[in-house]
Design a protein that fits this description.
Largest sheet: 5 strands, mixed
Number of domains: 3
Strand content: 25-35%
Shape: elongated
CATH class of the largest domain: Mainly Beta
Length: 528
Amino acid sequence: MLLSVQPISKQKIQLFLLCLASSLLTACDIPNADISGKITYDNVSHNETTDGLEYTKLQQSPIRGVRVEAIENGKVITSDITDDQGNYKIVVKMDKFITLRVRSEFALGAENVLGATKIVDNTNQQAVYVLESNEFEVKREQLTRNLNASSGWNGTEYVGTRAAAPFHILDRIYDIHAKLSTIDQTINMPELMINWSVNNVAESGDRETGQIGTSFYQNGEIFLLGAADADTDEYDGHVIIHEWGHFFEDTLSRSDSIGGPHAGGDRLDPRVAFGEGFGNAWSAIITDDPFYRDSFGARQESGFSINVEANDTINPGWYSEGSVQSILYDLYDDFTDDADTFSLGLEPIYNVLIGAQKDSEAFTSIFTFMTYILENNPAESANFEALLKAQNISPAIDIWGSKAANDANEPNSLPVYIELNPTDRQNICTSAAFGTTGNKLANHRFIKLNIPSSGNYSLTVTPNSRHDVDAYLYQHGELLALNEDAGIEPLTLSFDAQEGVLVADTLAYDEAGSAISAACYDVALTQN
């Protein structure tokens, strides 16, 4: 039989002899030890010229709002939550062998308004990332133990564990917490899972192997790219905060965006234009930095940037994410230029997003947002008018965009909403002039249905040619009915409705029902 003998520390021998001499062996208590320190991570900033990562300017930043656990024999014996400087302090009995562990998730408590946010590895069963110290003996009454999550960068490439990445992501969410807590102490966000992995590539497929396509938000989860020498987003703070903005819209505010590919200068479906423009503006507002930077490429040395503050939008208008981001950021910031001579700050913007925007009869767009913020701040009407004019948007604003005059040289983009009363019949045409991805301007056409009294109504859509037309019926952003039958026969949607307004969203496909198409069709509203 093998006998394992652990060495007895000098302190323990002295304590034993003291207790024995005092005849208090059974009652003698082992003294406490105070262990304190700082928890940090390697923070890599961007080069302001190339927009790529600049590892030579690496700094150690505090990991804030996380729980530091003392582990003995696999069990947590005590813990503390790091403060704004990353500091912690725990008390344990002396002569123990312990490990410090930090999980990449916020410590829940009254001080955490962001809810349960954690960074997980989607290629490893969504395991939470953990930072751990080596085991050490507690043999002094005062001990300092600092812990730093390394970037894993050796000067030319990643060679070690990229332990800092999940903690930088978490720290950007902490920035949001810090900003929002200045205007709302009662905000209560639901659980958020942020999926990041070194295996996450810009290829669509199996997310459990890292084929996530791009960084995105969906159904309470954010996915972030992490493939070295291709596209990493863990240090792209604006990208992280942008995606969190979509989470905020989905859970606390409202977004009717249908998503899809988009780029600067695109003429977009107005729902998409507002959602993406809001995400960019939100990242600039939270950071007080108007330069949205995204790094990629070999050694993460390349990248691009967007000046959210700039008013030189390509193809400006109510269908432009660039116009939306410029307007929203100008409403917030205190920098003045030709079109921006005032500052509202964050609170009025936030109040619209969690207030009137949530219950809008029309789809969320720059029209709904500007209508509601004008209602809340009528004294700023002249300033709002200047911002809208600078982006080629009619200042005569209402939630329906009924005064919109900028058709982007595509007549079928206006009116924004075709108005339909019972017994009316209208001919509507979609357009594929700006792309066929389904999220471009005039791929969809919107119909405002005026319902004068409660009853049963039918919306009939009749294609003028051999096309398949889909129709979706909404009330206050909630889907009531749909018809996605792949065919060329007339389709009818029946619904019960109270007096008020419903909105129909229609789009057309080719005869095979597989590709977005420019097509015309008749729509009629009848009461049964």
